[in-house]
Design goal:
It is built from 18 helices and 20 strands. It has 612 residues and is α/β, with parallel strands linked by helices. The chain has four domains: 169 residues, GMP Synthetase, Chain A, domain 3, CATH 3.30.300.110; 141 residues, no CATH class; 64 residues, no CATH class; 181 residues, Vaccinia Virus protein VP39 (Rossmann fold, 3-Layer(aba) Sandwich), CATH 3.40.50. α11 packs antiparallel against α12 and α13 runs parallel beside α14. The protein binds S-adenosylmethionine.
Length: 612
């Protein structure tokens, strides 16, 4: 699978960055800033520049709650660096001050529609936020909204107003408003006062009787992850908090966070307003918002509609790969923002200029693509060995290069250290498969771990597959068993030229109708092996001439013509039709091509053969 690579130079204005100075390599800091401290833009200077910043969330906006959080390893990664020490994730925490409408939960969707265009609308942030204290039990809600409905036997007869009764419980006062009881006595009193169903009504009271759960500290000291999927909540990528004054004698521990004395307003939600309204008062708000407040909120003291200030905190996990890299790589450097994947392995192709930052880049790629990606590698050299295996350096994650890939409905086990695999060719392989018919017999000369051979085996009558690399043959065998295709495929481990001779010379093999030669660097040069393959047969017996699909590279001005020429030379024959197709551009000016043709009769029955 290929994840698109977008190379684009980034140009963070240095004075508005609120990242610690050590994000930048020293020479750059010296050339761009008069002092290193200038690089640490203060919260106020960040805000000063916010007008010039792009709309939407950005690491250059908001403020870092701990701007001086030291980065343990500021500089380009060295070989010894431990992944967890490369940079401090807390440096990427940004707090944004916002305004929000606090509305009753049951109305939030209706109002979300009505206020469209005035809401925050940031990627991956829901406009409707839940905050601690926005929910209450339905039973409690009834009690507050319709006090007269209350049939709670715990409400003392003398207390006609259930709120007063509840207040008594909260403050633990004895009858006659005596001294507050100690929490222990108070709890004891509550326990005795309630019947067995009492705890059902006041679930939080039941909770406080239980010992508090000790949160497990993660080994690496990181914040806990998980929680509600895609939503906003603590320990996730973002959290919303309402900024409000402290209420004296916080009672939330007794009756749950949702009960906040007079401020309690039933189940509510926050509708996060557009960032441009952050500092505005009600009067400065657009008419649509004012209308909602007027219509539903008014001046009623108990109204749940209110304009509140809140803080939206975005953590390291919120930011996308390119945003994090942009902040860390030196100004002007092209940000590597995509990679190829093979199973759990992300395969980078870093440029020379990225190499000093390769570990940082790899860690970000890993962090941002977990759990699918478990290992990040970089290709260190061009492929130039016989087996076409890549020279890879493991940069982050687990060190296993054995992975499993699903292609064309088949599963392949591959070890990138010892065998060839290229996910970019999956479309081409699929195209080739469409060419094959049920009664075909396919011969794959350079089969690798079997992406073409096994997919063909699923469709055609029989397959002969070969590879020179013993590791590839081993995986090809395993993959044939894994996909339950071992009966339809025969596997060989020999040089391609010898394999062609073996298959066509043998009396035992079935007549081959399709030949695949996918070794683009030099497959055309193997074509001479087809000279005289039917030399021992009589032409009139009507042997099927196989269709050959051969791949090749060309850097020529006219790549099709160039490749055609090479095929003609290899077969020593000029008069035959070749279907030529450009597969893909593998490097600037270098094409991969596929030529398909029926082996000319004069070549197959030639009396002169190539020397093996
Ligand atoms: C480009 S890979 C293609 C593998 C497979 N067809 C695929 O699409 O993944 C070429 C394969 O040819 C094998 N090879 C290289 N030289 C060979 C030779 N002389 N004879 C047979 N196989 C060879 C390599 O080991 C490698 O697995």
């Amino acid at each position: 699978m290929l994840i698109k690579f977008i190379f684009r130079p980034h140009s963070l204005h240095p004075t508005i960055l609120s990242l610690p100075p050590r994000f930048f390599p020293k020479p750059l800091i010296l050339s761009l800033f008069s002092t290193t401290t200038a690089a640490v833009a203060s919260v106020s200077s960040t805000l000063d520049h916010q007008q010039t910043l792009p709309y939407g969330p950005s690491l250059r906006k908001g403020h870092n709650p701990s701007p001086n959080f030291p980065l343990s390893h500021p500089h380009p990664s060295s070989e010894q660096e431990n992944e967890s020490n490369l940079f401090n994730e807390d440096s990427f925490t940004r707090v944004f001050d916002l305004a929000a409408l606090r509305v009753p939960s049951e109305r939030c969707f209706l109002l979300e529609n009505r206020l469209r265009g005035h809401l925050l609308n940031w990627p991956r942030i829901r406009n409707i936020a839940r905050v601690p204290g926005d929910e209450i039990d339905d039973d409690l809600k009834d009690l507050f909204i319709n006090p007269s409905n209350s049939n709670n036997s715990d409400v003392s007869d003398s207390d006609n107003d259930p709120l007063v009764a509840l207040n008594r419980r909260i403050y633990g006062k004895a009858e006659g408003d005596g001294e507050p009881l100690s929490p222990v006595l108070y709890r004891d009193k509550l326990a005795r006062t309630f019947n067995s169903k009492g705890f059902v009504r006041f679930r939080n009271l039941a909770k406080i009787s239980r010992p508090k759960k000790v949160k497990k500290k993660k080994e690496d000291g990181k914040k806990e992850e998980g929680g509600k999927k895609g939503g906003i909540g603590r320990n996730e990528m973002a959290v919303v908090e309402v900024v409000e004054e402290e209420i004296e004698g916080d009672v939330s521990r007794l009756l749950g966070a949702e009960f906040k004395g007079k401020r309690w307003q039933g189940p509510t939600r926050l509708l996060l307003l557009d960032e441009t309204y952050a500092d505005k008062g009600i009067d400065d708000m657009p008419e649509a918002i004012k209308a909602v407040l007027k219509e539903y909120g008014g001046d009623t003291k108990d109204s749940a509609f209110e304009l509140v200030k809140c803080k939206l905190t975005l953590f390291y996990s919120y930011w996308q790969m390119n945003e994090v890299l942009e902040a860390m790589l030196p100004n002007g450097m092209i940000v590597p923002s995509s990679f190829e994947t093979v199973g759990h392995i992300a395969h980078l192709n870093l440029r020379e200029e990225h190499l000093p930052y390769k570990k940082i880049v790899a860690k970000v790629v890993l962090d941002k693509n977990k759990p699918k990606i478990q290992t990040v590698v970089n290709k260190t050299d061009v492929i130039h060995n016989d087996y076409r295996t890549m020279q890879l350096e493991i940069l982050a994650g687990n060190h296993s290069l054995v992975t499993s890939v699903v292609e064309n409905g088949l599963r392949f086990h591959v070890d990138l250290a010892t065998v060839y695999w290229n996910s970019r060719l999956s479309t081409e392989r699929q195209r080739l498969l469409n060419y094959f018919m049920h009664d075909d017999v396919v011969c794959d000369v350079f089969a690798g771990v079997g992406p073409i051979a096994l997919a063909a085996a699923k469709k055609v009558k029989h397959v002969y597959a070969n590879d020179l690399n013993p590791y590839a043959v081993d995986y090809l065998e395993r993959n044939s068993v894994l996909n339950k295709l071992e009966r339809k495929i025969e596997i060989f481990n020999m040089d391609g030229r010898r394999f062609i001779d073996t298959i066509f010379a043998s009396q035992k093999t079935r007549p081959v109708t399709q030949v695949v030669m996918n070794l683009p660097n030099d497959a055309a040069e193997f074509l001479d092996a087809f000279r005289g393959i039917f030399r021992k047969h009589h032409k009139d017996r009507g042997y099927t001439l196989p269709r050959i699909h051969v791949y090749g590279f060309s850097k020529a001005q006219d790549p099709e013509f160039d490749f055609h020429e090479r095929i003609r030379i290899a077969l020593s024959e000029v008069a035959f039709d070749v279907e030529m197709r450009k597969v893909r551009l593998v490097a600037p000016g270098k094409w991969m091509l596929c030529a398909s043709f029926i082996l000319p009769e004069c070549v197959a029955y030639s009396k002169t053969v190539s020397i093996l």
